[in-house]
Design goal:
4-stranded antiparallel sheet; 6-stranded antiparallel sheet; single chain; mainly beta; 4 helices
């Protein structure tokens, strides 16, 4: 890419060529797929509202989304009470859909509000046995773990796992903790892996600042019974400023790749690799193709083993009519597709051109892709949670 840094026309032609090759490759792959949906090539794109503000809920924020082993969609968010503030009182909410998002069961309160202790950052994991694991935080000071063995119908009593975060204190004396947010992963070796971020701010009153910050992972090798800390991946520095909300994905070669939110002047997502997800992290580098508007993003692998594609989704509103947009507002939610394990992203489609913030993504067994994202119609943060469904036929559509 750097070879063409001063030659935008050549770079444009190169990207077009890569996109054509990628589309042709995917078309060949999908011709061999067994699912009717992919064989038909019928493009799918529709949307519906899953969580909406109203009553005591001023804003529905911070989505998480998973598809269970039984094909049930589980959507999570924070019902923020009275205000959209990160420090509002909150109920951690969940809804289930057994029909691919067409209908939804009523709200379930996974973690009820406690006055003065915001409850947030739902981080669910679906394991190979169908158990759903869920982490979240209270007051940015305590971390909790619960699980469901019946497809999200009932949940075990929440267990305090702050001890896994306390293990960082000799190295990093944090005042703020948070897992995720958004779905996390189980590695092929069975390890449950959760990216986390920590902050050791100078400002503690009236509310603790979320910066400066660092990122790491915590993990469980015994199906969620106990949790341990991994190595710190990156700390705040002039080169890589205030890394925070992070997503993990396991690559085909067994390495774990982190995709990292940061506030660096490059306005690009940070990338780091580890051979086991808990140690030996490479120094983060910027992915020049993944814009960073300073917002949480999501990443996932398509489930079809014949298709190596990885999807990345975040607001990407850096250019309009060929001109930079100041302040990079959270809008123009875009999905980008890679078939080379995240080295390049030649396919790009806009999911929602309007206001859109945090998002999470899940993939169904038939290849349907589900994106749950924040959207609103004004300049505030009184978000609604929208579910948009699409597939590779839509992504490949010109």
């Amino acid at each position: 890419m750097f070879l063409f840094k001063n030659h935008p026309v050549k770079l444009h032609l190169l990207r077009n060529s890569l996109a054509i090759i990628f589309i042709s490759t995917l078309a060949l792959l999908f011709n061999g797929c067994k699912t009717r949906q992919l064989k038909s090539g019928k493009a799918l794109l529709d949307s519906s509202i899953v969580f909406a503000p109203g009553g005591e809920f001023a804003s529905m924020r911070i989505p998480a989304l998973i598809m269970s082993k039984k094909g049930t969609l589980l959507a999570f968010c924070e019902g923020r009470i009275g205000t959209a503030s990160d420090w509002a009182d909150m109920d951690l909410l969940m809804r289930r859909s057994k029909d691919g998002g067409r209908t939804w069961e009523p709200n379930v309160v996974i973690a009820p509000r406690i006055g003065g202790q915001p409850t947030s950052n739902a981080t669910p994991i679906v394991d190979e046995n169908g158990v759903i694991h869920l982490l979240y935080q209270r007051d940015y000071a305590k971390a909790y773990y619960t699980s469901s063995a019946d497809d999200g119908q009932t949940w075990s009593p929440a267990v305090d796992i702050t001890y896994a975060f306390d293990a960082f204190r000799p190295e990093y004396d944090w005042k703020v903790l948070a897992p995720g947010p958004g779905h996390s992963i189980q590695l092929k070796n069975g390890r449950l892996l959760v990216p986390v971020w920590l902050s050791d701010p100078a400002k503690l009153k009236p509310r603790r600042s979320h910066a400066p910050s660092c990122i790491a992972t915590i993990y469980s090798d015994d199906h969620g019974k106990t949790w341990k800390r991994g190595a710190i991946v990156a700390n705040n520095s002039p080169e890589f400023m205030n890394p925070s909300e992070t997503m993990a994905i396991e690559l085909n070669d067994g390495r774990v790749m982190l995709n990292i939110r940061n506030v660096s002047g490059a306005h690009r997502r940070g990338i780091s690799y580890s051979h086991d997800g808990i140690s030996g992290w490479t120094k983060p580098v910027f992915d020049e193709e993944l814009f960073e508007p300073i917002c949480m993003a999501t990443i996932i692998r398509l489930q079809d083993k014949q298709n190596p594609a990885i999807l990345f989704i975040n607001p990407d509103n850096q250019i309009s009519d060929g001109k930079p947009i100041p302040k990079y507002p959270r809008k123009n939610l875009m999905v980008k597709v890679s078939n080379d394990e995240g080295k390049s992203w030649p396919i790009r489609k806009v999911i929602n051109p309007g206001p859109a913030g945090y998002s999470d993504v899940a993939v169904g067994p038939d290849g349907t892709i589900y994106c749950l994202y924040e959207s609103n119609s004004d300049k505030g943060f009184n978000y609604t949670m929208v579910l948009k469904k699409f597939n590779m036929a839509w992504l490949l559509q010109k």
